Amino acid sequence: MTKPVIEVEKLAKSFGENQVLKEITEQVNPGQVIVVIGPSGGGKSTFLRCLNLLETPTSGKVAFEGHDLTTMDTKGVNSLREKMGMVFQGFNLFPNMTVLENIKLAPMKVKGTDDASATKRAHELLERVGLDDHADAFPDSLSGGQAQRVAIARALAMDPEVMLFDEPTSALDPEMVGEVLNVMQELAKEGMTMVVVTHEMGFAKSVADRIWFMADGYIQENNTPDEFFAHPETERAKDFLSKILM
Amino acid sequence: MKKRFGLLLALIAALVMLVVPVGNTTHAQAADNSLEKIQKKGVLVMGTSPDYPPYEFQATVNGKSTVVGMDVQIGKKVAKDLGVKLKIKSMSFDSLLVALQTGKIDMIISGMNPTPARRKNVAFTHTYYQGGYDIVINKTDKAKYKNKDSFSGGTLGAQTGTTQYNASKSQTKNTTVKGMTSQSDLILALQSHKLDGVAMEKPSAEAYVSNNKQLAAIPSDFNMSSSATSSAIAFRKGSTSLVNKVNKTVDQIKKENLVKKDYLPAAGKYLKTNTVNTSMTHYWKAFLTGIEYTLIITVCSVFFGFIIGILLALARMAKGNFFKNLLRWIATAYVEFIRGTPMMVQVMFVYFGLGLFVNLPALTSGIIAISLNSGAYVAEYIRGGINSVNIGQTEAARSLGMSNGETMRYVVLPQALKNIWPSLGNEFITLIKDSSIVSIIGVTELIYQSNIVRSDTYRGVAPIVVIMVLYFILTFTASRILNYFERKMQHD
Ligand SMILES: Nc1ncnc2c1ncn2[C@@H]1O[C@H](COP(=O)(O)OP(=O)(O)O)[C@@H](O)[C@H]1O
Ligand SMILES: [Mg+2]
């Protein structure tokens, strides 16, 4: 069997008294698409942010390709973060740079890529998300769907091995959700390893390899989409699905 | 006679001496080689406050603003007799004693009278001039006033902290005494009838009267000890060999009556040429120099203050291990301290205090002090600016593998600076105005130049109006330029 890309062992996280994650142990294999679903406030974002150490776990282990991130120095963490692209609900594009500059910044400053190759690669990525004609636009002038596609291109520019998505379509007008999901689906097809937090059940059903159902600080169910949606095991999941599928 | 020794400066001097026990105390105890040292150096630095005609004042000689007056003649003679070159350093009278004690200057010749209090801190030569006091009045009042006793029910003015100020207070009855820091201000107040008379030294009074047809002088009849009306040269305490040598020169000056015979008339000549052309345009060079220095100070201080501000802001946000916490604590304490003390004190502390370790010119000291001061304020703006940048920006940058430093530099700071650009612009404009504080250590910026022009021309208001307009032009232009860049940044 192939070795997992991400291994999480007894991962726990508290904010003061509030224990948000309660000893989670799971793993992500290369090429897998994991869709994390669950009620809001259940700790999905916190979990995702612990994977690339934007949030420091209170205890437990997060390993990327066998290297434990929690015991690593800052430099090591920085270099492993390159390999985990992240896409946020609020896009977080750099407003003071053009679309092209947004994409080129990290490759040039972190990897030391020269300007010409960074520009070339940025155009390729923009082409791929269908926005090459917006290369010189500033983020303010983009629609939400366009901004999120640029954010995906920006993350891809570092050639990550895993992509983390935290509700990438939740801030979008309904008519723009499709264009972003399409890009994500393409990525999945190309074999990208992905962990996606979303409420888009259609996407979950058609793209996910595994569904992780998360509530109350741990992963309550880990199943294939067919199994999970047809036969949810826990009361928590049944309750959640009944509300969401209404 | 000038007797002022600001409390503030006394405190700073005390502080400086406390911090550096090797000040003048060891000078006093060490074997006295003061004479030898000066002769070896080949230069004698004379400190003086050139706002006190005819003792010392600024005049335009061959198109250049120069310190002249009878004290300068005496300084030249002293230097010549010692076989060394004379160098003159101008500063406010208040600063002279500290400057002598901290080694910025070698001697003071500035109409200074050898009072017992001063003798505790410095060594005086024999007196070289015995003066007295007059009261300057408006000529139209000549019939009304005879001497100090005629001002019952009226108002007398004198330079604050001077001997004549104290005498006016203690030796008159029923008279209000008003103190001001500058003689030209007093004359102005007299002419606008806010004062009925101004007590000042005879030579000064004569100079004013001879240059202003509306004024007249009457004897004061103050009852004075001779030490309060005489002038002497001050050296560092313990410079016995030097003082003894210079005493020979002083004795000769007195014996040959050189002050009355040569020096005063020579000084008077400059005063006369001065009154010929007192139009402000005649002094455009002085004002231009003022603008130049004001701009140099402002631009340098903004530049360094900005760098200091960024470093301080980052230090204030450091968190984590012991070292970082210590750094944050120091930066916070620094900002609080700077914001809690007057800039004027900081300027004097840098000039006189740091001056003990390295000999910094006044201009450099001024720039250092103002940069350090401005840095504290800029740090707070920058900190606010950094906090105003959405945390999502940092997270996005970190998730791309950028380090903390790279994130700051390429993502957060550019946005923070854009947000606080108006505040930074304000700081720049404030500095154009606040840089005037360095005039107290003798940097020839606008305020300093205007004071020179005022004592030079005996015109009180015109130079003030000129620099007001000049300051406004500077700040207005600056704010236009800043607005332009602000608009440009918004377009980006
Ligand atoms: N930075 C934080 N400080 C304190 N509490 C937080 C922080 N981030 C999240 N939480 C809390 O953790 C819990 C889980 O939040 P989150 O991970 O955002 O859930 P989800 O993404 O599933 O909606 C919530 O109760 C939230 O209030
Ligand atoms: Mg969330």
- Kindly estimate the percentage of residues of chain A that lie in beta strands according to DSSP: 15-25%
Structural class of chain A: alpha/beta
Major sheet description of chain A? 6 strands, mixed
The helix count of chain A comes to 9
Uncertain ranges of chain A = none
Helix content of chain A: 25-40%
Shape of chain B: globular
Oligomer: heterodimer
Write the H/E string of chain A, N to C: EEEHEEHEHHHEHEHEEHH
- The end-to-end span of chain A amounts to 40 Å
Radius of gyration of chain B: 26 Å
The tally of strands of chain B reads 13
Q: Please tell me how large the radius of gyration of chain A is.
A: 18 Å
Share of residues in helices of chain B: 55-70%
Question: Could you please say which CATH topology of the largest domain in chain B applies here?
Answer: MetI-like fold
Q: How do you describe this structure in short?
A:
The complex is a heterodimer of chains A (246) and B (492). With 246 residues, chain A is of the alpha/beta class.
Short key terms for the protein model shown above:
heterodimer, A: 246 residues, alpha/beta, six-stranded mixed beta sheet, four-stranded antiparallel beta sheet, 9 helices, B: 492 residues, D-Maltodextrin-Binding Protein, domain 2, MetI-like fold, 13 strands, 58% helix, binds adenosine-5'-diphosphate, binds magnesium ion
Tell me about this structure.
The complex is a heterodimer of chains A (246) and B (492). With 246 residues, chain A is an alpha/beta fold. Chain A is 39% helix and 24% strand. Chain A has nine helices and ten strands. Chain A is globular. Chain B has 492 residues and is an alpha/beta fold. Chain B has three domains: 7-130 and 228-276, D-Maltodextrin-Binding Protein, domain 2 (3-Layer(aba) Sandwich); 133-223, D-Maltodextrin-Binding Protein, domain 2 (3-Layer(aba) Sandwich); 282-491, MetI-like fold, CATH 1.10.3720.10. In chain B, 58% of the residues lie in helices and 14% in strands. Chain B is built from 19 helices and 13 strands. In chain B, helix 3 packs across helix 10 and helix 15 (362-388) crosses helix 17 (404-434). The termini of chain B are far apart. In chain B, 46% of the residues are buried. The model of chain B is unreliable at 1-5 and 20-29 (pLDDT under 50). Classes of the chains: A alpha/beta (246), B alpha/beta (492). Chain A binds chain B through residues 52, 54, 74-75, 78-79, 81-86, 88, 90, 92-96, 105-106, 109-110, 138, 151, 154-155, 158, 164, and chain B through 390, 392-393, 395-404, 406, 410-411, 414-415, 418, 492. Magnesium ion (MG) is lined by residues 44-45, 167 of chain A. Chain A: This is Amino acid ABC transporter ATP-binding protein. Chain A: It comes from Lactiplantibacillus daowaiensis. Chain A: It is a peripheral membrane protein. Chain A: Keywords: Amino-acid transport, ATP-binding, Cell membrane, Membrane, Nucleotide-binding, Transport.
